[in-house]
Here is the input.
Amino acid sequence: MSEPVVLVAFGDMLRVPVNVPKNQPRSLEQAKAHGADVRPIASPMEAAAIARNHPSRSVVFFVAGFETTLAPVAALIKQGLPKNLLLLVAGRLTWPAVAMLLQSERPGFNALIAPGHVATVMGPEEWEFVVRDHHMPAAIGGFTSESLLAATYSTLRQIVDGRAFLDNCYGESVRPGGNPTARRCIAETMQVVDAEWRGIGTISKSGFQLRPEYAAHDARLQFPAGADEARPRRGEMPPGCDCARVILGKVLPTDCRLYGSACTPDTAIGPCMVSDEGACHVWWSAGHRSNARSRATTSGSGRIAART
Ligand code: SF4
Here is the structure.
């Protein structure tokens, strides 16, 4: 029997719950507890190092993330992958999801703060369609309070003035054209394809997959038995989880009936509660500890108690 595969993934991914029958591991963390060789990594270079240290084993790197995650992975590919390192690419582009919302009847927002870290890699031009096609105020905001405040002010000012333009409020990082080296690496190693977004459905031209010349390193091709199609509930959120509507801005995290009761950072049910950057986790970190439904029940009983 050949040696078992080593699976490596960024740390957050280990706790993301998936839909499988109850008697099966529901996360990579649980699979590890059941004996699978699952290892958290902090950078793509670590994946390559693990592969080099285990030349007789296949090492599968689960690459989940957006443009900022894909850029260093593409750079690693360009440097040359160890023969036994396979990539399971589940990368997504951000702007097609926003475009899909804007094309819907009710996008749910009337101004956009675009992600500065993505624009740093891909360039601010990717977001010009928001103004050009939808006449919506837009600003690029980055990872500093100053930048986010500036982007918030800019979009509000545009609304008040009845104007719409793309304001780069993260100029210290975001340059016209983005990072040309990173963009070239991505373009030379990956191609853009239609992609399924969990709980949302398929969004046209919103995902990355390896170019055919890297087929020998494509885990999907090398392990066809693990194809997504084999899992009937692959595209669904866990029962009761509202993550899809949360990330689309349709509801607040606290509108989910599981928030703060069944679902907390220690007992995360959906992906939005797992990572520090997940919307539900951010809400929790900001001090919100109960969902809207339980607050309504509590205040309702308070009123009853006051009357009796
Ligand atoms: S609170 Fe938990 S279950 Fe509800 S949307 Fe967020 S992650 Fe999903």
About this structure: The domain at 95-168 is CATH 3.40.50.11750 (Rossmann fold). Residues 241-243, 246, 253, 256, 258-259, 263, 269-270, 272-273, 280 surround iron/sulfur cluster (CB under 6 Å).
